[in-house]
Amino acid sequence: MAIGIILGAAVWREGPSPTLRRRTLHAAALYQSGHITSLVLCGGVGQHPPSEAAVMQDILLGAGVPMDAMVLEDHSTTTGENIRFARDLIHETDVAIIEVVIITDWYHAPRAKLIARRAGLHATSSSPSLRGAKFWPQTKSALREIPAYIAYAIRLRT
């Protein structure tokens, strides 16, 4: 059995950021195709309420994912917290989890999997299509991940 962990992304004043929407709709497709059996929605309140997890829940409900397939983790504010808090929620259940699928963007997945392995999770990742994504924000995010990955790899961050 595989459980999906959707990593948070910004909520804008007008609603979900394109990144948050893409990740969440990708998770809905994975659920509907049977690749994952349930979801942990990660992300607290950032610059604009509500929490990232609450916004994900609304998107998933609109995409036909049932409420009982979701667990909200709405306190985290970093990738490390997303994964650690999700892990704790997963361990609270009686379900035997064989695999965790981290749902995030391609540039973020290597660092997220590194954090997950250190947190004791057997994790793979799945990333949404870049269809509709703008080149500059994707490039900027990818460039930001390089020093972040290095910092995590040499354990400057946890």
From TrEMBL:
One Gene Ontology cellular component: plasma membrane
Top-rank taxon: Bacteria
Pfam families, alphabetized: DUF218 (PF02698)
InterPro entries assigned: Cell_Envelope_Assoc (IPR051599), DUF218 (IPR003848), Rossmann-like_a/b/a_fold (IPR014729)
DUF218 domain residues: 5-146
Name of the protein in question: DUF218 domain-containing protein
